[in-house]
Every structure is written in structure tokens, then in C-alpha cells.
């Protein structure tokens, strides 16, 4: 009698579940994508990086003829290039963060790019993290180029104390972060990508003229100083003046102080307000797309 034996086969191994990368890893990957897209727009790259250097050269040349200096009577004075450098650093931060975000996101929304991204598994936090990362990298490159040009072309002296470099670091980082989130929030204001530049650029220009970027701040009308104090650019420029100008330059500040506490408070306030407004108002679709 033949005995039949049944052979059993092992069940197939359970398929391993595919894990999504962490939000931090996705944000880093998105940062690389944003930087590649940014550097492919050569006209934008040239404008963002060259604009502060060109403006510094113009003002240093026009106002600094015959060795003219900035400063109250009885002070040694500083060269115009030295005085205008803080304003150029501040306006560079504004261009790289607020203006860049407000216009580029409006264009991406108008072209349908945000709608497509919203339909992917990538969390929104990774998208915004990529935006912040790309702005920080581009702003740091811009700052390095500006300081290099200021020292080699215009003889500007850089800070020699660690305290001043620390002030430069926290004002730069806090100003960049505040400008970025405010730019994200403001990107919902333009009705289309085509109108974004027409809406954003005039605001940036007005702030530059009223915040001590193009003119000596203490020589602006009192009402203009008061109004500019409501916006972050004035505080970024003032913080940068405390880095690059000598101690006696406090005489040219309306409050007689660098007001580091107020600078940190205003920029932190704009950072929080920008985050809240961005969450409440940000749109992934065009206005006519539901």
C-alpha cells in the first residue's frame, strides 16, 4: 500500500511595508529641487545677487567723492561704502526672502504647480521647509558675495569682534526667516502670477527708500522714521548698522541705541504673524480653480 505524503510549501514572505522618508529628509530633498529651479532662472539669479553690490557701488561712488564721509560733527566719520553696506545687506535679505517667496509662489500657483504638489504624498511642511532652506542658502551666498565685494572693491572693514559676528548671525537668520514666512503669506495677495511682480516690487522699493537703505536714516523726516519702524526692513538695517559701524555711530540713531531687544522682538513678531497668516490664507489653487 502506497503512502501518499503531502508536501507543504511555506507561505510567501510578507511584503515589507514601504516607509515614507521623514519630513526633514523630504524638506532637504525639496531644498535641492528649489535651488536647482532658482539657479536655472539666470536673470533672477543675477538680479538677486548683483543688485545689492551694484547699488553699494553706485551710492559709494556718488556720495563718496573727494573722500567724503558720514558722521556728525566732531566724529571721525566713516566712508559712504561703510555706511551703506548694512542697508545693502538688509535689502539683500528682503529680496531673497520676501520678494522671492511672494512672487515665485504666486507664479507656481498660477501655473498649477502647487495643485500638483498638493496631490502628492509629500507633506506641506516639507514643501515649506524646502522653501525656507533654499532661501537660507541663496541669502548666505548673496551675503558672502556682497561682503567680498565690499572689502575688495570698496575697502570696507569687516567686524573684528565675536559679538558683532554673533549679532550679524542672529539678525540675518531671524530677518531671513521672518521675510520668508511673510513672503509665503503675501503670495496669496496677487490675483495671478503675472501681476505678482507689479504688486510686490513697489512695496519693496518703498520700504527701501523709507528704512534707511538708500539714505542716512537719521536725516529722514520724523514721520517716515515712525512709519518705517512698523516694518521689519528698518530693524534689519539697524541691526546690521550695529555690526558694521563704529560705536560712536550710535549718535546717528534716533533712539541713541542699537535697540537689539526691539529688533529681535519685531522680527520674531513678524515671524509668528507670518506663520499664522500663512496657515490661514495660503492657497494651493488659483482663485478661479475652486
Straight-line distance between termini: 78 Å
How many individual helices?
A: 10
Q: Over all CA atoms, what is the radius of gyration?
A: 25 Å
Helix content: 55-70%
Q: Name the overall outline.
A: elongated
Helices and strands: which structural class?
mainly alpha
Strand order of the largest sheet: 1-2
Strand content: under 5%
For the residues shown, what is the average pLDDT? Answer: 86
Helix/strand order: HHEEHHHHHHHH
The counted number of beta strands is 2
Q: Any idea how many domains?
A: 1
Keywords: Antibiotic resistance, Cell membrane, Membrane, Transmembrane, Transmembrane helix, Transport
Transmembrane segments: 44-63, 83-107, 128-153, 165-186, 198-217, 262-282
InterPro entries: ABC2_TM, ABC2_TM_bact-type, ABC_2_transport, Nod_factor_ABC_transporter
Main location: membrane
Structure description:
It is a multi-pass membrane protein. The chain crosses the membrane at residues 44-63, 83-107, 128-153, 165-186, 198-217, 262-282. It is found in: Cell membrane; Membrane. Keywords: Antibiotic resistance, Cell membrane, Membrane, Transmembrane, Transmembrane helix, Transport. The chain is mainly alpha-helical and 290 residues long. The chain has one domain (23-285). 66% of the residues lie in helices and 1% in strands. The protein is built from 10 helices and 2 strands. The protein has helices at residues 23-40, 42-63, 80-110, 113-118, 124-154, 162-186, 196-210, 222-228, 232-244, 260-281, and strands at 69-70, 78-79. A two-stranded antiparallel ribbon has the order 1-2. The protein is elongated. The protein starts with 22 loop residues before the first helix and ends in a 9-residue tail after the last helix.
Amino acid at each position: 500500500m502506497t503512502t501518499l505524503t503531502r508536501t507543504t510549501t511555506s507561505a510567501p514572505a510578507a511584503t515589507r511595508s514601504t516607509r515614507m522618508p521623514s519630513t526633514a529628509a523630504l524638506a532637504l530633498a525639496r531644498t535641492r529641487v528649489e535651488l536647482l529651479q532658482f539657479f536655472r532662472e539666470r536673470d533672477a539669479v543675477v538680479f538677486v545677487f548683483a543688485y545689492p553690490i551694484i547699488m553699494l557701488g553706485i551710492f559709494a561712488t556718488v556720495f563718496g567723492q573727494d573722500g567724503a564721509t558720514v558722521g556728525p560733527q566732531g566724529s571721525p566719520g566713516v566712508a559712504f561704502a561703510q555706511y551703506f553696506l548694512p542697508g545693502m545687506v538688509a535689502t539683500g535679505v528682503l529680496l531673497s526672502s520676501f520678494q522671492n517667496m511672494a512672487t515665485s509662489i504666486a507664479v507656481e500657483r498660477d501655473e498649477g504647480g502647487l495643485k500638483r504638489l498638493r496631490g502628492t504624498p509629500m507633506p506641506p511642511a516639507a514643501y515649506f521647509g524646502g522653501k525656507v532652506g533654499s532661501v537660507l542658502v541663496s541669502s548666505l551666498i548673496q551675503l558672502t558675495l556682497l561682503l567680498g565685494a565690499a572689502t575688495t572693491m570698496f575697502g570696507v572693514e569687516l567686524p573684528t569682534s565675536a559679538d558683532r559676528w554673533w549679532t550679524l548671525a542672529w539678525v540675518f537668520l531671524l530677518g531671513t526667516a521672518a521675510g520668508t514666512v511673510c513672503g509665503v503669506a503675501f503670495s496669496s495677495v496677487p490675483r495671478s502670477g503675472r501681476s505678482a511682480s507689479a504688486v510686490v516690487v513697489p512695496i519693496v522699493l518703498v520700504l527701501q527708500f523709507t528704512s534707511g537703505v538708500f539714505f542716512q536714516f537719521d536725516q529722514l523726516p520724523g514721520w517716515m522714521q515712525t512709519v518705517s519702524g512698523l516694518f521689519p526692513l528698518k530693524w534689519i538695517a539697524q541691526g546690521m548698522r550695529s555690526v558694521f559701524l563704529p560705536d560712536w555711530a550710535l549718535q546717528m540713531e534716533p533712539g541713541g541705541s542699537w535697540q537689539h531687544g526691539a529688533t529681535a522682538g519685531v522680527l520674531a513678531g513678524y515671524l509668528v504673524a507670518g506663520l499664522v497668516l500663512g496657515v490661514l490664507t495660503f492657497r494651493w489653487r488659483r482663485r478661479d480653480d475652486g
